[in-house]
Amino acid sequence: MKMILALVALVVLAAVGWLAFSFRNAAPEVRFTTVKTEDLVDTLNTNGKVEPLSWIALRAEHSGRLADVRVQKGSVVAAGDIVATMQNLELQKSLQAAEARFTQVEGEAQNVLQGGNSALRSELDAGMSRLRVEITNAEAELAATERLVSRQAATPQEAAMMRGRVNLLKEQLRGLEERRDSLVSPGDRKAAEGRIREAQTAVAMAKGKLEQGNLRSPIEGVVYQIDLRPGAILNPGDLIANIGKVDSLQVNVYVDEPELGRVAIGQPVTVTWDARPGKEWKGAVEKMPMQIVPLGSRQVGEVLVTIANPGNDLPPGANVNIAIRSRTAPKAITIPKETLRRENGVTGVFLLEKDKVAWRPVETGISNVTRTQITRGLQAGDRVALATDLPLRHGSPVKALDEDAGL
């Protein structure tokens, strides 16, 4: 019995040893991907900031309290529309004083311009009216007398007397007219007219100064910045609002200095904004940077791009995502970036050959976020090892798995 138990134990130990030996020498499982042929686009992803192409900064022209704000961020305004109003009590008092002075001057001038003292003028006007009626009647009598004289029904002396009476009335009328005209001299009239003009000018100037409190937009556009509230105290030059045209926008694209070599004028650009998922704005590189500037911990060049903004959905000042399509390789041989390795300073991949891996040096071309072009060393249909924590060596046996296995 003891002999049998010893033999069983020996068999078990042998089996365990064989299993352990087999496990240690089993080929490791490695995921592989297939080399593809596809159109590969080299896309440079970065960020940028949106600004209007044309804009103005509306500022206070004098000091005062902000009485009213008639727009808000995003409001569309026409040229001349009031954006905000300022209150200035001194200017309001100046206008009231100028208007009161004009009323006074106008009343005084009317007496002059209408012919002087109104009572005397009325008396003279009445006298002239009476004389004109008498002259009309006397001339009619003179005409009748002269007809009688022609028929020898009246004497020439009677006609002469009537003619003398007509002339006397006319002289009296001329006297009253001269007296009427002498009530106001040309100099008096000119001076009165001058005083009226001066008073009118003073009112216009006071209104103009008060009008400066109506802060109007000089252009048609969209209010994209206004932070003030009624009651704020302003000084000359203080910013009221930024107004710009936003149907087309300029994007300052921040490209890291080492990446600038991938960018050129004319390259297509796609802009996205996190606040509007799924929406894109298209443009192209228009201007390369003239200098490198710091941006936080980065050194960047500001590449300028112009985009259309239908519907004004993208507001100025927005921080946006940028994708610059720098290069395209049609029908390129491509692999995932994670398959590339560095061995002794050489870039290559582990290629599957039957049940083993073989080290294969490769040359790369353009790349995007996930894939790289292979210009030499591989062909479509080859299978290369994906990233793994297992140590791989040229000629190592492996158990090949599909790239989706174990995910």
Which helices and strands, and how do they pair?
Layout: H1 2-24, E1 29-34, E2 36-59, E3 64-69, E4 76-77, E5 82-87, H2 89-113, H3 118-150, H4 156-182, H5 186-211, E6 214-216, E7 221-225, E8 233-234, E9 239-256, E10 268-272, E11 280-287, E12 292-295, E13 298-308, E14 319-336, E15 341-343, E16 346-353, E17 356-361, E18 363-367, E19 371-376, E20 383-385, E21 399-402
Parallel strand pairs: 1-21
Antiparallel strand pairs: 1-20, 2-9, 2-14, 3-5, 3-8, 4-7, 5-6, 7-9, 9-13, 10-11, 10-14, 11-13, 12-13, 14-19, 15-16, 16-17, 18-19
Helix pairs in contact: 2-5, 3-4
Mean pLDDT, to the nearest integer, reads: 83
Number of strands: 21
Q: Per the principal axes of the C-alpha atoms, what is the gross shape?
A: rod-shaped
> What share of the residues lie within helices?
25-40%
Structure annotation, total helices: 5
Name the structural class: alpha+beta
Strand share of the residues?
A: 35-45%
Name the strands of the widest sheet in spatial order. 2-9-13-11-10-14
Query: Can you tell me the residue ranges where pLDDT is under 50 for at least 5 consecutive residues?
Result: 18-24
Task: Tally the structural domains.
Answer: 4
Radius of gyration: 51 Å
* Largest sheet geometry: 6 strands, antiparallel, barrel
Distance, first to last CA: 52 Å
Could you give the order of the helices and strands? HEEEEEHHHHEEEEEEEEEEEEEEEE
What are its keywords?
OB fold (Dihydrolipoamide Acetyltransferase, E2P), conserved putative lor/sdh protein from methanococcus maripaludis s2 fold, alpha+beta, Elongation Factor Tu (Ef-tu), domain 3, 21 strands, rod-shaped, six-stranded antiparallel beta barrel, 4 domains, 5 helices, 407 residues
